[in-house]
Amino acid sequence: xxxxxxxxxxxxxxxxxxxxxxxxxxxxxxxxxxxxxxxxxxxxxxxxxxxxxxxxxxxxxxxxxxxxxxxxxxxxxxxxxxxxxxxxxxxxxxxxxxxxxxxxxxxxxxxxxxxxxxxxxxxxxxxxxxxxxxxxxxxxxxxxxxxxxxxxxxxxxxxxxxxxxxxxxxxxxxxxxxxxxxxxxxxxxxxxxxxxxxxxxxxxxxxxxxxxxxxxxxxxxxxxxxxxxxxxxxxxxxxxxxxxxxxxxxxxxxxxxxxxxxxxxxxxxxxxxxxxxxxxxxxxxxxxxxxxxxxxxxxxxxxxxxxxxxxxxxxxxxxxxxxxxxxxxxxxxxxxxxxxxxxx
Amino acid sequence: xxxxxxxxxxxxxxxxxxxxxxxxxxxxxxxxxxxxxxxxxxxxxxxxxxxxxxxxxxxxxxxxxxxxxxxxxxxxxxxxxxxxxxxxxxxxxxxxxxxxxxxxxxxxxxxxxxxxxxxxxxxxxxxxxxxxxxxxxxxxxxxxxxxxxxxxxxxxxxxxxxxxxxxxxxxxxxxxxxxxxxxxxxxxxxxxxxxxxxxxxxxxxxxxxxxxxxxxxxxxxxxxxxxxxxxxxxxxxxxxxxxxxxxxxxxxxxxxxxxxxxxxxxxxxxxxxxxxxxxxxxxxxxxxxxxxxxxxxxxxxxxxxxxxxxxxxxxxxxxxxxxxxxxxxxxxxxxxxxxxxxxx
Lengths: 344, 344
Known about the structure:
Largest sheet of chain A: none
CATH architecture of chain A: Orthogonal Bundle
Oligomer: homodimer
Number of domains of chain A: 1
Number of strands of chain A: 0
Shape of chain A: globular
Structural class of chain A: mainly alpha
CATH class of chain A: Mainly Alpha
CATH topology of chain A: Farnesyl Diphosphate Synthase
C-alpha cells in the first residue's frame, strides 16, 4: 500500500534535460567501478532509477555534473544496504568503511583511501569532482553534514546488530531520523550542482537552520511511508510507521495514518518558515546578489522535497511485490546481493 | 640551541588569573582518567606545563572552563605522542582512535565512544563541555578543523610507519605542516573560551581565512624551531629545519636560520592582513556588535601566536638535555612512556 501515498505539495520542480545522457554514462561507471558485481545486483540497481532521483533533485546541473551526482547517489545508496542481519560482526566493517567516507572530505581531494573497497574508492573519485570550485566554508559545511549522517547510519547499524532497533520512542526516533535521512548534505550539494553558494550568514540564521531540519523531517517521514513495504520485507524496524504502531498499540493502518499526519504537519511548518525568508533577508541587510543566492538555496530545498517525492512514487526500490534475487536476499536478512565492503 | 630562539612579536597577551586553581583540578583529572599511568609519565607530563599553555592561549576563560581547556590539551598532546616507531602496525590503532576522535563532535554530545581507550573517553567527556552553548555553525567549523588536523596526523604517522617521512619537499612540507599543526580548531576554541562567536560572513571572508592559515604557518614553523631538539631525539623527520637541511644540502645552522627567516616572513604577512580587518568589516557592512566580535576573533589568533610562543620558550616538553625515563623512551623510538590506546 504505502508506496502510492500522495502528498499535496504546493510547488513543482523541473527535471534535468540531461537525464538520459548522464544515465548512460553513469551505468557504465557503476559497473566499471565494481559498485554492482552480479547481474542480479545490476538488475536491482537499475530498477531503483537513481538517475531520475538525481535529475529531479539537481535539475540545473550540467550534463557532466549530472553524471557525477548520479555516481555519488549510487555509492551512497548501495553503501546504505551493506549491513547483513545474519552477520552482526559486519557492523564493525560498516563502521570502518563509514569512517573512511567521513574523512575523505577532510583531506586534500584525490588522496587515495586508507580503507580500500569499491565504495571508498568511488567516493574519493566523486569527492574530487564534487568539491571542485567550492569554498572552504561550503566544504566545511558539507563535510560536517555528511559526517553526521554517516555517524548516525553506523549507530543505526549498531542498534540492528544488537537487536535493539525496536526500542526507540517516537520522540527519540524522530530525532534519530533527522540524522539518518541524510538530507543536510544532499541540500548542500544543490549549491555545487548549480554553481552558487548560500551566504554564510544566511546558512547560520535560525530560520534557515530550522528549514533544513524540517526538510529532513518531511523527507525522512515520507521515505518511511513510501519504503514501508521494502523495510518490512528487510525486517528493518527503523520506520516511523513501525515505531508508532508499537508505541500507540494501534493497527498498521492507524499507524500509517498518524505517520501521514506528522509528515503533513512538518510540511506546514516548513512552508511557514519559507514565508519568513524575505524578512530574514531584510534583517541581515542582504544585497541583491545575496538575496538571489538565498532564493536559490530555498529552491535547492524544494528540489529535494519534491524531487525525492516524485521519484519515491515510482522507484522499484520501494516496490511492494518483488520476486527477484534482491528481494529474496532482503527476506533472508542480507542487505544486498553484492558485497561491496571487501576487495573484489 | 633552538628552544631559546626568540621572535619579535608586536603584541603581548594576558595570562589567565585561574592558572593555579585550574592546574590543581586538571592534574587530578588527568590521573583519574588514566591519561597518565606511571610515575615517570606523570613527571614528564608535569614538566610540559600545559596548564600554562592553556592559561596563555585562552586568557579570558572562566575558572571552570580553564580546567576543561587544560583537560582537552592533555588528551590532544598525549595522543600526539602515541605512535611507536618500533611497532609500525601501531599506525592502524592510531588511525582507529583518531577516527573515533573525529566523529565525536559529529554526534550528540555525551554519546559514549565506540572505540574505547583513555583518550577517546576523555574526549567524549571534554567535548560535551566544550560544545556547550555554541551554535551549530561553530560546531560545524570546529568539527571540520579538528577532523582535518587528526586526518593529517594519521598521514604523518603512516609516513613514519612506512619510513617515508624524509621524502617531502619544502613546499610539500609547508602545506602539510599547516594541516598537522592543529591551529584552526585551537583558534575556534578561543570563541568558546570567551563566550562569543565570530560572525559567519567574517569567518568565510578570504582575509580571515588567510589569517588563520598564516597563524597556523607561524605557529607550526615556530614549533619546529623550538621543538627541534626533542624531535631529533625522537627521530622525527617532520621538522622544517630537517626538511630544509636535506633540500638545501646545507648545515644545521644554515637550515635553522632559513627556518627562522621563513617564520618571520609569515608573521609579516599575517600582520599585513590584520591591518586590513577594518576594511573587511566595512566591505561586509558589519554592525558595531559584529565588529566587536570580529576584533575578539583577531585577539583569539593573537592569544595563540603569542601564548604558544611564550610557553614554548620554557616548557620541559622541548628541553634539549633530558635524562628522564620519558627521554629514554623517546630515544628508543617509543613515543611515550605510557600506552594510552589500549584498555588498561
